[in-house]
Specification:
The protein contains ten helices and seven strands. With 201 residues, it is of the alpha/beta class. The protein has one domain: 3-Layer(aba) Sandwich (Rossmann fold), CATH 3.40.50.850. Strands 1, 2, 3, 4, 5, 6 and 7 form a seven-stranded parallel β-sheet that branches.
């Protein structure tokens, strides 16, 4: 009887997580980029892949004017956001923090509260620390969080996987950069599609 109850609870929990999955709607979708900084990215194993994918999502953000929040963890020590990202930003206005969880930062919450977002595309480093803690709190606040696994990283593959697993268990949609892009584009043949196609190739 006890084992049946545990199985039942497990099925219900899985069902509830599945129910949280929904397609992105660009009218209420925004981006949060966490701590893609000089010294941090220098010790990431997949630096080029992560940067390339975040740049793609920044182009998507620019095309559709999606809200964007950029954070930097103690930039005096870890350096500024990488120039590759700066060059793709409409404006460089990072929120400086010392907290690992972005949601513990008043300026971050104020910026977030000024939007009408329901879905957040969350990317950056590290997957198991700042990204996970931020993801956890965003979901607790009722946001649907989409985490492209190819746009987040940690210093080790093990910790990258731990971060993804923890976020998935909490209810985040673990996805990919292309999956996100094509959800927002919705259809082929538009000028936005043709513009993004140049970036995706």
């Amino acid at each position: 009887m006890f084992s049946i109850s545990l199985t039942y609870v497990s099925v219900i929990n899985t069902f509830l997580v599945i129910m949280k999955v929904s397609l992105l709607n660009r009218e209420n979708t925004g981006l949060v980029i966490v701590d893609v900084q000089d010294k941090l990215m220098g010790v990431m194993g997949r630096k080029k892949e992560i940067i390339d994918n975040i740049v793609k999502l920044l182009h998507l953000s620019k095309i559709y004017d999606l809200p964007l929040i950029l954070t930097e963890q103690y930039p005096k020590w870890l350096g500024p956001t990488l120039p590759e990202l700066k060059d793709s930003l409409p404006v460089y206005e990072p929120l400086n923090k010392v907290h690992f969880n972005c949601c513990d930062v008043e300026a971050f919450n104020n910026r977030l509260d000024s939007t009408d977002l329901k879905d957040i595309i969350l990317m950056g480093v590290e997957s198991h620390i700042c990204v996970f803690q931020t993801c956890f709190s965003l979901i607790e606040r009722g946001y649907r969080v989409h985490v492209p696994q190819d746009a987040v990283d940690s210093r080790t593959e093990a910790n990258w996987r731990v971060g993804l697993e923890l976020m998935g268990e909490k209810g985040a949609v673990i996805t990919s950069t292309e999956a996100v892009i094509y959800q927002v584009l919705k259809k082929a043949g538009t000028k936005e599609f043709k513009e993004m196609l140049k970036i995706i190739k």
